[in-house]
Amino acid sequence: MNTPVPVSFEFFPPKTDAGFDNLLKAHTELKAANPEFFSVTYGAGGSTQERTINTVIEMNSRGVPAAPHLSCIGSTLDTVHELLTRYKDAGIKRIVALRGDLPSGMRGTGGDFNYASDLVRYIKSEFGDAFAIEVAAYPEMHPQADNLDKDIDNFVAKAQEGADSAITQYFYSVSAYTNFVSEVRKRGCDIDIVPGIMPITNYSNLVRFSDACGADIPRWMRKSFEACGDDSKRIHQLGVDLIVNLCKDLIAAGAPKLHFYSMNRSEPTLAILEKLTK
Ligand code: FAD
Fold first, then answer.
1. Which CATH number do you get for residue 208?
2. Domain that holds residue 100
3. Is 166 in contact with 191 (CB distance < 8 Å)?
4. Is residue 153 part of a domain?
5. Closest CA relative to residue 124, chosen from 153, 155, 97
6. 2 within a domain of the structure (yes/no)
7. How far apart are CA 164 and CA 202, in angstroms?
8. How far apart are CA 273 and CA 237, in angstroms?
9. Can you tell me which atom of ligand 1 is nearest the CA of 155?
10. What is the pLDDT of residues 167-185, one digit of tens each?
11. What distance in Å separates the CA atoms of residue 99 and residue 161, rounded to the nearest whole number?
12. For residue 136, how far is its CA from the centre of ligand 1 (angstroms)?
């Protein structure tokens, strides 16, 4: 499959053997899109550490580079060093460097890192250029930021510490993306800012999830889904069409690549990519 721009796919580490088999099946199917890399998330406070490591190493052995997400909040320099050494020794060449969130109920940081920029600086100082470093970006602002301007300054600080590229939180407003990119460029930062694309497989779940992570669902989009009523076929089709149009608009607006939140399934993402490549 010849996608119009390079793509990458995100997975989460499965909890069961059956989940792992499903992940490998989706991984094999998504390879048809010639992705640049696959990434594997990391649970809050390191709760999925061993599963993330095992998943990423298995994926990396299957022909396409795999990148672990690594959140630093609550971690010590030593534990992060040990983890990065394991990844380096296993041939991993890219890290998605994050602050992460403390598990609910925990206060303070209780660790050696306060922000993702601290982790980027640490990776560069201890491991030089061993890893390409991805960081997170929030075109609609990180939910805890004081304001968009400060959040963009904090984003640029991650690039100044050595991040090579960024992946965004998902969003449905092209202008939020173009505005974010233009503000970042005004600050002299030129790293790739790759839109994170969330396929819509279950609209009600998406609404719940989006509230929690601060992604805005525009009114026109809510109304379009409401107009489908209970017609699941129409809802599905609308979800695909809407994301295909979003991807086209983003590419036209200069998005250099696309990163898909696969949710460990191949069909929703492939349905979008097939329409996008036509
Ligand atoms: P940071 O960049 O550190 O920013 C966090 C907040 O602190 C922002 O509001 C920022 O403006 C502010 N800030 C930054 N620097 C400073 C400073 N010097 N002074 C004051 N304020 C500052 N979470 C997981 O647990 N596991 C994952 O695998 C995971 N993967 C993700 C992948 C992507 C692509 C994205 C977009 C998010 C992911 N997350 C993941 C969620 C992420 O961990 C949370 O959004 C977290 O709250 C912020 O992480 P960050 O790396 O963006 O933090």
1. 3.20.20.220
2. 7-276
3. yes
4. yes
5. 97
6. no
7. 33
8. 14
9. 2
10. 999 999 999 999 999 999 9
11. 14
12. 6
Percent of the chain exceeding pLDDT 90 equals 87
**Would residue 234 count as lying in a domain?**
yes
- Lowest mean pLDDT of 1-15, 96-110, 169-183, 202-216, name the range: 96-110
Can you tell me which atom of ligand 1 is nearest the CA of 141? 9
Cα–ligand 1 centroid distance for 98 (angstroms): 6
Active-site amino acid positions: 10
Determine which residue's CA is closest to atom 53 belonging to ligand 1. 99
Q: Atom 14 (ligand 1): residue with closest C-alpha?
A: 154
The DSSP letter of residue 169 is: E
Site to probe by mutation for ligand 1, drawn from 41, 48, 71, 177 as the one with most ligand atoms within 8 Å of Cβ, is 71
The answer to whether the beta carbons of residues 109 and 81 sit under 8 Å apart is no
pLDDT at residue 273 greater than cutoff 90 = yes
Whether 259 is covered by a domain: the verdict is yes
- Domain total in the chain: 1
CA-closest residue to ligand 1 atom 46: 100
With a cut of 70, say whether residue 105 has pLDDT above it: no
